[in-house]
Design goal:
The complex is a heterodimer. Chain A is built from 16 helices and 20 strands. By secondary structure, chain A is α/β, with parallel strands linked by helices. In chain A, α7 (201-213) packs across α10 (303-314) and α13 packs parallel to α14 (440-457). Classes of the chains: A alpha/beta, B alpha+beta.
């Protein structure tokens, strides 16, 4: 088999970067194998063992060696692609001509674009407070993506922002859509008359996506960070966001999303919502929706209910009572006698949270992030009874990317759950949009295939229920992802709430009728 | 910029050098006289050839590969005023792992706990060494196929305290695998740390000494950065995080402390931490003299 190589002298990359490069090259048309390694003697031997011997090469241990094997015509383009990928990455720190224009401070950035009015800060937490203060002092609103900022610092920053008439979205703010521009983990949705303020990133994503799917549009989506409605912070950013939306002529309906705050904070937020003069849909996940309803306030029980109510109100209609009817689709197999439990593996924290709330109405649920009546998992790496796991929890993300980006942990766990004879239904979320994995269906399909094989060879049914939080405008494309996931055996529901209810109904019925 | 700690093997003599590589939290300086200094951000663990700063620094904004460096007794100057690291007042950091110093009969139970924690991680870590040592399904790679017989032979030689045989296997691991510090080197360093942890009697220490003397010259066959790490390990000057992991096992630390030590070790580099942890487990479980057999 033809083989070609390239030596790049004194080039250093870590092992993950080199493995990613090797994998990317191996996927190129006409390429059978590819390897990018430091040119040590033992690595040269290893290449020979892999059938990619290149003979004598003028390179030493400190040089990077790229070897590709495959069709003759594909080799040179593959090596050029490798060099382009390496130089593209190197160009960022090296800078070249662009370096002179790359701002190194907020003041420099403002000097280059005096019209900027928002800074997005994504430094390690230890530097984030100082950088946020600098931005606020320059008159900028802040989206603070960084985590590991103390609640005391958060409260102080938000008080400074409030005094300056600005807003701090975050810390740990993963989602926002400002003037139609998705920031961080966000989806491509139509612009429209519905404005949202949320303390939950995936909660905001689900509402904005469902509004889009129901024919509505989003004026602004403002994230506040998960601690904003704590007693220490006092809901400063939610109150500011609410004020912005109340004053925004393009916003006709407002949606507020949070876990239930303490009574004092809830009273302040609901008081401001009443004073806004606009219809406000309120979802405090886990709180009684009726207690939030009255006047211009419309309580919602699920994220889907909130989206439906907002779209109705924006269209000048009264929200209809939620339809919680569940129909098990045809073709769902019967469960074997021992298959009793739902195993939920979530990348979005709020999806796990909401599903837990819905499932615990009917049964005991275990979780690594228990809520309400649910029970803590004894070992978060092993399911017991009905188990819903938030894979975005710190324990799982230590040293690796968030599960919305890196699916490895979830695909491993899918196979693990399939081996458990008590698993009845796998319950998943799939989040599309900017920041998320480029092709979630391609990540999940092999694991779902393996899980099906394990279950069926053991005489058990394989049932996987999921929902996709995304739109056709997202880089991954909702239609293509949904089709690929259905081909891989996933039963798709329209929302996280519907997926949880369907999983519950399947287990209660002992499977489907087929 | 002030240094907080200076590794015990950092040269204090005046010399020149140049920036060799710049990373997010570290920068390597190749010295004209040979050897390497690594300047580390505060969040990185100490290493014997490292200078750790007292405050955070975006290295890539200030330093460039090839930039000249001047090491003086009280400071390190980079380029023409790009950065000066002041050494006055910095404390000397020394690895606290001493051969056999903290090993107890109960330590093996802590080692088993650490192995359990690593087993959870192995499924999602790209480490052929970790998969091999934990007897997990190895990835279908040439590296996995290559190391299986090498590790089996190395375990046999170690159990038999056959240093010449062990060094023959080690020579085939040096510089083997992907990365700036090839995985084989990281594994060897972890293996030496694990052997040091259990080296309670004179024959074990003598065996370790023979290995270290034999491995140090093999560093020529790997990258300059990795060679420095190997030389440190051969001087039993292990990195802070690797030492912490070994001490947590040896001292039978509480479960939370052990878990924290394992997590910190796994965060070293892209896969270096996992490969070195695999080496520790290999030394503790596969190379026990109790399982003596012919090499």
């Amino acid at each position: 088999m033809p083989t070609m190589h390239e030596v790049i002298a004194r080039e250093y990359r870590d092992s993950v970067a080199l493995m990613q490069l090797s994998a990317a090259l191996a996927k190129l048309p006409g390429i059978q194998q590819a390897s990018a390694v430091m040119a040590t003697e033992n690595n040269l031997g290893l290449l020979g063992q892999a059938g990619m011997a290149i003979g004598k090469v003028a390179a030493g241990p400190n040089d990077l060696l790229i070897v590709v094997q495959g069709d003759e015509a594909a080799l040179r383009p593959a090596l050029d692609e490798a060099k382009a990928r390496l130089s593209a990455k190197a160009a960022q720190p090296e800078g070249g001509a662009a370096k002179a224009f790359a701002p190194r401070s907020i003041a420099m950035a403002l000097a280059a674009d005096a019209d900027a009015n928002l800074a997005m800060i994504s430094t390690p937490g230890e530097y984030a407070t100082a950088e946020t203060l600098k931005a606020l002092n320059q008159g900028l609103n802040v989206m603070l993506f960084s985590n590991n900022v103390s609640v005391a610092d958060e409260a102080a920053l938000k008080r400074v922002a409030r005094d300056k008439g600005l807003i701090v979205m975050g810390p740990d703010c993963g989602t926002a859509i400002i003037n139609g521009i998705p920031l961080a983990f966000a989806n491509v949705v139509k612009r429209g008359a519905i404005g949202a303020v949320g303390a939950s990133g995936t909660g905001l994503q689900e509402v904005t996506v469902l509004v889009d799917r129901l024919g509505g549009g989003i004026s602004q989506a403002i994230g506040t960070g998960g601690h904003d409605l704590s007693n220490e912070v006092g809901g400063i950013s939610m109150l500011t966001g609410l004020k912005y939306l109340a004053e925004d002529p393009d916003t006709r309906v407002i949606v507020l999303i949070s876990k239930p705050p303490s009574k004092g904070i809830a009273d302040a937020v609901l008081g401001a919502a009443r004073a806004s003069g606009k219809p406000v849909v309120v979802i405090f996940l886990g709180a009684d929706a009726k207690s939030l309803t009255g006047g211009n306030l419309h309580g919602a029980r699920t994220l889907e209910d909130a989206a439906r109510a907002a779209v109705a109100l924006a269209g000048g209609r009264k929200p209809e009572p939620p339809d919680e009817t569940v129909r098990i689709p045809p073709g769902v197999p019967k469960l074997a006698p021992g298959q009793k439990f739902i195993r939920g593996l979530f990348s979005g924290g709020t999806f796990g949270f909401q599903a837990t709330l819905l499932l615990q109405e009917a049964a005991d649920v275990h979780s690594n992030t228990p809520v309400g009546k649910s029970l803590p998992l004894k070992d978060m790496w092993k399911s017991e009874g009905h188990t819903l796991v938030d894979l975005g929890d710190d324990v799982f993300t230590r040293g690796r990317p968030h599960p919305m980006i890196d699916y490895r942990l979830r695909t491993e766990r899918i196979v693990q759950e399939a081996r458990d004879p008590e698993t009845a239904v796998l319950l998943l979320d799939v989040v599309l949009g900017f920041g998320s994995n480029a092709d979630p269906a391609a990540e999940l399909a092999p694991a779902l295939g393996k899980a099906r094989e394990i279950a069926e060879t053991s005489g058990r049914a394989f049932i996987c229920v999921g929902h996709v939080c995304g739109t056709d405008g997202d880089p991954q494309g909702l239609g293509a992802q949904a089709k690929a996931l259905q081909s891989a055996g996933m039963i798709l529901a329209q929302s996280n709430a519907q997926a949880a209810r369907l999983a519950r109904a399947i287990v209660a019925a002992g499977g489907g009728s087929a | 910029m002030r240094a907080e700690t200076i590794g015990s093997r950092v040269t204090r003599r005046r010399c020149g050098g140049r920036v060799e590589a710049v990373f997010e939290h570290a920068c390597n300086v190749a010295l004209d006289a040979g050897g390497l200094i690594t300047v580390l951000a505060p969040q990185a663990g100490n290493v014997a050839h490292g200078i750790r700063l007292s405050r955070g620094l975006r290295f890539e904004f200030r330093l460039r590969p090839g930039m000249p460096v001047r090491v003086e007794e009280d400071r390190v100057d980079f380029g023409a005023g790009a950065l000066t690291v002041r050494l006055a007042g910095a404390r000397t950091w020394t690895s606290v792992l001493r051969p056999g110093g903290c090993w107890k009969p109960r330590s093996m139970r802590a080692a088993e706990s650490a192995r359990g924690l690593l087993r959870r991680e192995a499924a999602v870590r790209s480490s052929e060494f970790l998969a091999a040592v934990l007897r997990m399904e190895p990835p279908a790679t040439a590296l996995a196929a290559r190391i299986a017989p090498l590790l089996a032979a190395l375990a046999g030689c170690t159990r038999a305290r056959d240093s010449a045989g062990a060094l023959r296997q080690v020579a085939q691991l040096v510089g083997l695998g992907p990365g700036l510090t090839p995985a084989g080197d990281d594994f060897i360093i972890g293996w030496l740390a694990g052997l040091a942890l259990r080296a309670g009697d004179h024959p074990q220490r003598a065996f370790l000494q023979d290995l270290c003397a034999g491995i140090a010259p093999l560093g020529r066959a790997t990258t300059s950065v990795s060679r420095q790490h190997l030389e440190d390990a051969c001087a039993l000057a292990f990195s802070e995080r690797l030492s912490d992991l070994c001490l947590a096992i040896g001292d039978v630390a509480p479960a939370a402390a052990l878990e924290s030590a394992v997590a910190a070790q796994l965060q070293v580099g892209a896969s270096s931490g996992a490969d070195a942890a695999a080496g520790v487990m290999f030394a503790l479980f596969d190379c026990s003299p109790a399982q003596r057999s012919a090499c």
